[in-house]
Design brief:
Distance between the termini: 23 Å
Radius of gyration: 19 Å
Oligomer: single chain
Number of helices: 14
Number of domains: 1
């Protein structure tokens, strides 16, 4: 767990809540929570790069879409099982993040934002045009194979199984990323975020560590896309759109960048607005936009960052 008690309690409390909700919620609400958990995986991956090495990418839809298509195409074209296909989707995101990082990570902050956004637009256009592979706007549907473990097997078509399958990956994502941040590697990430020049002066290769953070971020962004495609049994070229690059930025800003788990709060708030507030007010995004401005006005570190600041005071 994180060294900060508030982050540790928030993470533990959230995970325990997720575990309980899986068996008490009705089907519709359970589906919404599954989506929240999937987006939380995506958001944590993004915060690993954005919150700890100051890399504000507008191209993470590339990894989200690559994870979704990598998994779905492996099931459709190569008849792989669920877990091998999921691993293949993650590997696709990992490789893309590494090779794109070799280009983008070298750039200064403003150019980094612009170039990642341009590359993401190119991938979106390619996905829309290559209908023979991606299905374009219509997308691809997939029958998710069951997972067999000896005499035991389960299917994601069972709502409760699907719920705990996603929860398992949420827990693993948090534990892996949190462990990396607690290691000396995480301390170097924080030093890069605070002052790149001093970090470089101390003898650390800043480019190397920023590339590691960007690559790991792409890996878990692809995991988020793969889980989303498996949950919906569907993927489309829209997953490469700019919308999916903006979402993780919003989640992290609301919940708190550099907290790893603060983005869960951002995901929950935005999801509730999308599914409940939008039911009675069409222009709910106006309210949501004002909410974001208020949060950032009170604390530029988001809601969880605000709580941490108040505790330190």
């Amino acid at each position: 767990m994180s060294k900060n008690p508030i982050l540790s309690y928030f993470a533990l409390g959230s995970l325990l809540t997720f575990m309980i909700l899986g068996v008490v919620l009705p089907t519709g609400a359970r589906s919404l929570v599954i989506q929240m958990m999937v987006f939380s995986v995506f958001a944590m991956g993004y915060d690993f790069s954005f919150g700890f090495t100051n890399q504000c990418s507008l191209g993470h839809s590339i990894f989200f879409g690559a994870g979704a298509y990598g998994t779905v195409l492996c099931i459709l074209k190569f008849k792989l099982g669920l877990i091998p296909a999921l691993v293949a989707g993650m590997a696709t995101g990992l490789l893309l993040a590494f090779f794109l990082g070799l280009i983008c990570v070298r750039l200064s902050e403003a150019y980094f934002v612009i170039v990642t956004a341009i590359i993401a637009s190119v991938f979106h256009l390619l996905a829309m045009d290559m209908t023979w592979l991606t299905g374009g706007d219509d997308g691809l549907t997939v029958s998710v194979p069951a997972i067999s473990m000896g005499s035991f097997s389960f299917s994601l078509y069972q709502p409760v199984m699907n719920y705990y399958f996603v929860l398992l990956f949420l827990v693993l994502t948090y534990l892996i990323l949190n462990r990396m941040l607690k290691a000396p590697l995480g301390k170097i990430f924080v030093s890069v975020r605070e002052n790149e020049k001093r970090t470089n002066f101390l003898g650390y290769d800043v480019f190397r560590y920023k590339l590691i953070a960007f690559t790991v971020s792409g890996l878990f962004g692809a995991l988020g896309g793969a889980l989303y495609a498996l949950t919906l049994r569907y993927t489309s070229a829209d997953y490469f759109s700019f919308y999916w690059s903006i979402l993780p930025v919003v989640w992290c800003l609301i919940g708190g960048t550099g907290t790893l788990v603060g983005c869960w709060m951002g995901v929950a708030i935005m999801s509730l607005f999308q599914y409940y507030v939008s039911a009675w007010f069409t222009y709910y995004l106006l309210i949501f936009g004002v909410l974001i401005l208020v949060i950032l006005r009170v604390s530029n570190k988001g809601l969880l960052g605000f709580l941490l600041t108040e505790r330190n005071r």
